[in-house]
Amino acid sequence: MPPKKSRNPLAKTKGRQVSPEALEDVRRLLGDAPRQRDLLIEYLHLIQDEYAHISAHHLAALASEMKLSQAEVYEVASFYAHFDVIKEGETPPPALTVRVCEGIACEIAGAKNLINALKDALGDGIRVQPVPCIGACDSAPAAAVGQNRIGDADVETISNAINEGATTASIPAYTDLEAYISEGGYNAFKACQSGEKSPQDILEEIDQSGLRGLGGAGFPVATKWHFLIDNPRPAIVAVNADEGEPGTFKDRDILAFNPHQLIEGALIAAHVVGADAIYIYLRDEYPHVHQILKAEMAKLEADGMNGDIALHLRRGAGAYVCGEETALLESLEGKRGLPRNRPPFPANEGLFGRPTLINNVETLYCVTDIVRNGAQAYQDSGRPHFYSVSGRVKKPGVKLAPTGISVNDLIAEHCGGMADGHSFMGYLPGGASGGILPASMGDLPLEFGSLEKHGCFVGSSAVVILSDQDPIDDVVKNLVHFFEEESCGQCTPCRAGCEKLAHMLDADDWNDDLIRELAGAMQDASICGLGQAAANPVLSALNFFKGESK
């Protein structure tokens, strides 16, 4: 009788083994932090930040340390653009990467030429990487050297930054906790805590103000909050600070210069809906904001001013789709940012299965003003909010203006007119997904409900100004390419539709009927707003720029 074979499970172990050295690296980086599943993306950031890539050995070690399968960790790491996952035998990227924005504002400012010039000038030791919008449209063309964002970029300024070692985030002067309190900051939240203002009082004030969500959808804020009132408690408040819409950068300035007004608004919202935690989901392209929020939230907690409401800060990792609220929830749970099917809706079953209120940065910023000064004052001032203006104007930037201002007035009164040598040709009223309107429609109010009949919408108020020097074909191709790259791939209408649409635009003559048929299928059948809106730029070109497009 032959001898029995060894049943030692380690005798022929299959799969990637965990390196003791890599495991030690991971444990050092994680320290005493809890090995919670929802922190997976945060820990992937730690590895990426330390080594400029995530090796197969570190990925395996992280999976082991968190008691997750390697496949589970890999699928998350490989989903996000800001993680460089390197397999065995592959060459890691250089330690320094120069990311050059190729969003629409940067493209019309010469981003392609800058990318080519940098590749020639910097050589093989530095990676030059074209990337989607980095939220610096007002200083196009823009690039990021490590964590240092450089506007009005050219080869010389980027080369100088590299030579001087200027690769860390630059922190602007901002209103810190002490300054904010000295100006009456957190008095509105204290009035909530003391009972001076009841949740019902605040809901009525928000309702009377007419405040609508300013992240893109424009849903009435008071109505959204009401959805959570009778749901089980405690709830959660999630702050959407992942503004990835090309042309949008208003939340960047709110967070960078007056972060506490946003935090106070979030605390007020948490008090009203009965939440015990606030999660701020911040786009990774804003490292300077991350440092500011981390420092100021720590001060707030040290002083106990947040009461019994826990504050959490989470980084995105380069996925536009995570601006969609259910994809954001998935990412906050440490997963791939795939939009959820609804129902259930977040108000009933959101983050960690708990009722969740999701509002964007500017919405909660306005909540503080309304609770502090009253709904009537907000109405009397014209319900002002921030417009991100970029493109062919003399003075691009974040502009505070009354709701419903026209793009003609925005250009003339807030942007110093058109850039020299440029004539107004058209504009994006709501970023890449909001469609394109001709200059002849420049007197339309930039407000929810005013542009929809033209197949466009104001969205997050990302206004990109185009001139007679911007061929509409090139603009449309840039926008559709963005959606093709950013589709999460979960649903066929968006995944296949964006790819097919991009190919159709490369034809010598556009097939108008087939494009419209494809757009209709994408609008009707895509799971989330990315696929539903991806064809809007093409439809706008067909509707309003027929003589200028193929």
How many helices? 23
**What does the largest sheet look like?**
5 strands, mixed
Q: Which class do the helix and strand fractions yield?
A: alpha/beta
Radius of gyration: 24 Å
Work out the number of β strands.
15
N- and C-termini, Cα separation: 81 Å
* % residues in beta strands: 5-15%
Strand ordering within the main sheet: 12-11-15-13-14
Q: So what's the overall shape? A: globular
List unreliable stretches of 5+ residues.
Answer: 8-13
Mean pLDDT: 94
Overview of this protein structure:
The chain has 550 residues and is α/β, with parallel strands linked by helices. The chain has 23 helices and 15 strands. The strands form 4 sheets. The protein has a 5-stranded mixed sheet with strand order 12-11-15-13-14, sandwiched between helices. It has a 4-stranded mixed sheet with strand order 4-3-5-6, with helices on one face. The chain has a 4-stranded parallel sheet with strand order 9-8-7-10, with helices on both faces. Helix 12 crosses helix 13. The longest helix has 16 residues. It is globular, with a radius of gyration of 24 Å. The N and C termini lie far apart (81 Å).
